[in-house]
Fold these 2 entries.
Entry 1:
Amino acid sequence: MIEIKTELTTNKKQKPDLNNLGFGRFFTDHMFVLDYKEDKGWHDPRIIPYQPISLDPAAKVFHYSQTVFEGLKAYLTVDKRVLLFRPESNFKRLNVSNERLCIPAINEELALEALKQLVAVDRDWIPSTPGTSLYIRPFIIATDPCLGVSSAKQFQFIMILSPVGSYYKDGIKPVRILVEDYYVRAAPGGTGAAKTGGNYASSLKGQEMASKDGYEQTLWLDGKEKRYVEEVGSMNIFFKINGTVITPALNGSILPGITRDSMIQLLKAKKIAVEERRISINEIVEAYHNGALEEAFGTGTAAVISPIGELKWLDEKIIINNSEIGEVTQMLYDTLIGIQNGSLKDEFSWTIML
Amino acid sequence: MIEIKTELTTNKKQKPDLNNLGFGRFFTDHMFVLDYKEDKGWHDPRIIPYQPISLDPAAKVFHYSQTVFEGLKAYLTVDKRVLLFRPESNFKRLNVSNERLCIPAINEELALEALKQLVAVDRDWIPSTPGTSLYIRPFIIATDPCLGVSSAKQFQFIMILSPVGSYYKDGIKPVRILVEDYYVRAAPGGTGAAKTGGNYASSLKGQEMASKDGYEQTLWLDGKEKRYVEEVGSMNIFFKINGTVITPALNGSILPGITRDSMIQLLKAKKIAVEERRISINEIVEAYHNGALEEAFGTGTAAVISPIGELKWLDEKIIINNSEIGEVTQMLYDTLIGIQNGSLKDEFSWTIML
Ligand SMILES: Cc1ncc(COP(=O)(O)O)c(C=O)c1O
Ligand SMILES: Cc1ncc(COP(=O)(O)O)c(C=O)c1O
């Protein structure tokens, strides 16, 4: 076992109200930190009391956003086991992001071991009411205090934990989504396939415009032709057209979602036709007019599944399945949530017990 | 005058060796800080001793890179006056970046006043040897500790100062530049025209590849067709073809450089033909083959002007003006540097005396 120093807090925080957790607002008593220096590599893994990060004002992360992150969840089962959902996939993806952002690769085994120990230390923070979970946020920031535009030579890898509520209070609920026709999230050759802050900073404006129009999320089209569907806010997107479930193929500017991958595997196992391919917004509009557009949903760690009740594209309002949750959407949600929280058998070996 | 509290340090740092300053490695004794809260707006402007920034690990800047910055310089004239070069343009551009990044606008007058007071406090840090100056880095970071992907409700606006050396030790020197054919810095509808960290994070990889090939900088083509010239690293670009100076028009994905604008004004004043228009990499290659490509240079606050001695595009090596500094390039450099450091008359009212 890899040696991780642990310094326990002497000043435990009060736990938040489990009925009012929201998302990413409360944090547990401890955090994990790992340092990188050019001559030492990644070193000094440690669990310490949750505390502020103190950085020189010239630290590169503040200026050039050299940073990557991940998001995954731990669940408490009814019989009080703690399950992590596909954590190796997250650390693998973190290293893919690292490569794009010129950040040195982390040791994925060390990260997983550290995560397990951290969650174990803060185990009593994992909420148990239905739909709640412990959200885990690993992230890396460039810390050297130097304003030259070049890759940093010092980094910190940090993991923090946040008990989160059910994304939608009354179970899943169809959302209304605006298809963005001006702003762009990612382009070929850009950073769209990496989980890096700049993608999210760049998406805020579209999100703000959608909100003003009364929409909950933005659907992003490709950055080159503004024709092909890419993804939604922090979710991948799926459409059911004429009985076949279609999701945009991973083209280099879409984040390879782990929920997306799980959904594809679930659909295959259930013998429902599923295609990963390029799909234009026009094809969606046409399918809608032909009555062939049966369901649409987003997938991501935070909400697991968000059924899409309405898509707005220019002047066209596309109402999907009467703004109700589709059958396949509901089945996928029930199945995945069941596997994640341990109430269904995990045929895929996706979950890891602490 | 706007009231800015000032707390002076009791522990002055040692000044660095003026012959070995480099860029953005040393910082002065003080910094300026201004806070933003939703209910209070921007408030509490203050000059304090240079010190670390302490932030919750969940602060939005670490995760979603909601941040903008600026870069400008102060010069010490031979008769010991302190000149700021077009600082209002920088604060104006900061607010343009703010708009794109959903950051509340700052009061440009307050920022300028704060900058003057800060530079005055650290006046003895302004280096005086030829080519040196005081680099000023204003920046804004999103500070609220919340992991939801949405615009922050708390920000800090900070200014730090760094005495910097001449970008090239022996005066200006032609650089070799690789034209990037795979990675993309910015796309239409993206954040290219804003000075925000994500653009720089995304550029690191191209920069690293160029370096490995022995090139000093990357020339970015447009994100849509990878055909039109955009800009170089942290500089705008100019070509002299058949007696006319051409620079890419501001198209929404190029940073509107203040040095760029100054060069255009200087060229017009000198009655040298100058065009802002779309220019493809093929046009450059053709001009080279026809013997019409006379000079090329980058412009930016850090280096002022970088003559370009070589451009590499796919298998083509374009040697410009025998890898020597062109006449117009040298004239522009001498003129602008002269205005900036007060040795030439400032016909344009670009400089502000402290
Ligand atoms: C941009 C983006 N797309 C898609 C996803 C979904 O990925 P995952 O299913 O791994 O959470 C996320 C993250 O949650 C995201 O940030
Ligand atoms: C991407 C980029 N382009 C161009 C420039 C040049 O702008 P300015 O002349 O205002 O320094 C900069 C900044 O210095 C930059 O970061």
Entry 2:
Amino acid sequence: MQQEYPSKLLDKAVAEFSKLPGIGKKTALRLVLHLLKKKKEEVTIFGSTIIEMREKIMHCQHCNNISDEPVCDICLDIQRTDSQICVVENIKDVLAIEKTQQYNGKYFVLGGLISPMDGIGPSDIEVEGLLQRIDTTKTNEVILALSATPEGDTTAFYIFRKIGNRPAEITMLARGVAIGDELEYADEITLGRSLINRIKFS
Amino acid sequence: MQQEYPSKLLDKAVAEFSKLPGIGKKTALRLVLHLLKKKKEEVTIFGSTIIEMREKIMHCQHCNNISDEPVCDICLDIQRTDSQICVVENIKDVLAIEKTQQYNGKYFVLGGLISPMDGIGPSDIEVEGLLQRIDTTKTNEVILALSATPEGDTTAFYIFRKIGNRPAEITMLARGVAIGDELEYADEITLGRSLINRIKFS
């Protein structure tokens, strides 16, 4: 590594920040200079909080979501039904679905989507764990709540085939015109799909 | 602090990243989830590099620039003349001027610009250190290389008055139409100033 700044310590800190996604050299330098103006104690807390998080965080044994305990709060919640499993890509999707307040079942977090372009194959996501979960609980419905992208569709189809003839209904999120969207601005594929999958007016 | 995520460790890490300038809650979560996918050792290196940087970095006793040693490499460089001091706001400006390869003197880093709006007064920047530096070295010229902003102008004027009748010439960067700019797109204040301060064609 060629030294770019008059301080090796600065150099190394900028290089570490530059490794983060979406953070280039200039932003990294800005962040490091900001931290240099902060008190030593504050910067120590910043660094050690992140180290501790990585050291201690776990994945829930039941749903594979991020958790501080071996089993997460959602899985421990007896108010929630065990008969539905909502399969999502990551914790952000769990949070998004929780926000809707329309779901009272459990989750299963895959930890990614199959994406050959990014080198992510079926073995890199937690499908085996999902199948085990379906087999060990009374699951009536598996909701595939994956992104409406080629990666999401591929993953959904892979899981659909893997579930095979297990006695659980497999559903997926409705695709269609988003609430609030004007028809003339909806893209043609979405509009076409929403026409084919039209539902009874009630 | 209200808990937002299913993990307190995650919560705290996101909160720490959110404190950085220009990083909101969403970006912070993205960065933390990225680090969660990295190996524990890599994340430990990330955190400890930043803590070490803040702990050990110094300000050069001569020029106040960031340095790993009590006196920085530029100040130690005997090839560079002591008779010129280029006064800049921060290390980024030192790097920018070094890149031009047009300057062979020393620097003095103020560590900020006077900005009453941001609560930064004359005592928050290193003017006393600059005056001491001028008094203790044979300084023929003090170049005020500050941003062409109200804060830069205020700071330049303050330093100009503080230097008073010390026997050093005080200069400032030329202001004018940037190289490569088309005249019709130059703003009127810049164009006006470049007309008043026109120089002999040679």
